[in-house]
Each structure stands twice: as C-alpha cells, then as structure tokens.
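Revision sheet: structure tokens.
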Amino acid sequence: MDRIAIPRDDGLSSVLRDVSVRSVVYCLSDFTAPWGFRVEHSPVAKFHVLLHGTALLTVGDAAPVPLTTGDLVLLPHGDGHAVADQPGSPVRQLDAILAGHPVDEAGRLSYGGGGSHTRLLCGGFDLGASLPDDLAEFLPPVLTLDADTGLVRWLVPLFALLKEETQASAPGAAAIFAKLADVFVTQALRSYLAAADGLARLALPVRSDPDIARTLTMIRNRPEARWSVDAMAQSAGMSRTSFNARFRAVVGEPPMTYLTQLRHG
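Predicted:
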C-alpha cells in the first residue's frame, strides 16, 4: 500500500491553519450615483464587499483603486479611506450620511443621487489571537481579493449565496452576512500570507521555544548589527552548539542563513 507523504509542519503552515476572523457587518448599502463616503482611521480593521456595480477606493494619498462586482477589500490596520462611484463625486463623512439617512431595521442604508446602482457590504473584523502581533504588522494597508483572480472556485457559490441573501429580507440576514464575511476575509488573509511565504516566514515568532523567539525578536529589530552565532547564543543564554541545534530545529535553517535572508528579504 502506498504511503502518503505528509509535508513538514513549518511555521507558516501553522499560522495559515490558525487564521480565522470574527466579522461584524455594519450595513448593507445601496448607493445611486453620484455618491461617495469617507471613513476616518480607527484601530478596527475594516472590509468592503462589492456586490453589484463599480466603485473607486482611495486610501490616503495613494492612487484610487477601481473595484467591480465580486471584489473584496480589506484594510487590516483600519486606515482612513474614501469610496465613491467615480472621480469628482461629492464625498461626505459616513457619520454625516448615516445621521441624515439612518439604516433601516434590517441594517440597510440607501443614499445617493438616483443614478446607476452600486451595492456594498461594509463591516469590520477582528483577528483576535489568530495571528501573532508582529506578523500582523506586515499586512499591507490595503488587501484585495478580486473577482477575476482571487475568488477561488469554492468561494464562487458562497459569493452567489451572499448576493442572494442581500436581495432578500429574511430574518437573521445580518448574522448570515457576518458568517459569510468570515470566510471571505479569512481566505484573503490566507492567500496573502501564502503568497508572501518568505516574508511571513522571516517574521514568524517561534512560540514553541521562548529563548529562540527572544533572539529572533532582537535580530529582527536590529538586523544591521554585527551579529555572530556566538553573540546570538549568548543572548539566548546557551552554548554555541546548543543554540545552533535548537535554532535549526525550530527555524529550519542555520542562524547566519536566516540573518542573511532577513537583511536582503
């Protein structure tokens, strides 16, 4: 009988397996052109799912990012941003829009000038303890999962279900939105971390060995310093031989190889 080879459980695989989010849906918005809203920076990570139509997302001074039906946008650090139907459309603070156009009992917002229609699902998410803090810092300000290349095959029917739910007014819809958003947001994070294998691997703390983890933090904070294996071993409070063996066991490569990759990564 053939045996199935099980891949070695490296650090990134463990993180990808642990990635999970808890989403909260703020509102389902039906916008009609012209429209635009602005959200200020906050510690809460945010997401937008474009269910129908097109839009432009602008974060800070960066160039606008065009969005189309099926696109998911994550702002992992809660950066302030604006979303509008097209350049030049009036953009108002979201709080001001909500004050004049409060969401209905089903959590739906209607706003705009009566032109072409765009439907947007907006919310926030919490990574909780699913990602180490120092790895989360490497997530970009904006992360997109686009309809053409990002929606893997098994997400397509989920997106169809999400669209179907937003077109209905069944009780409990908000809870369904949040559960489906969990899946999309989690997949976007997993896709990014898997593609950024080298970066994520260098950033990953070694939780199973506190001494090695402490040394990794030190050299990541000062990679330009004149590190030697002896200096690393001393910082970890162990002999050179013991340090070498434990470092290779938990990181998967020699200390100086790791340092070289960190400096040029």
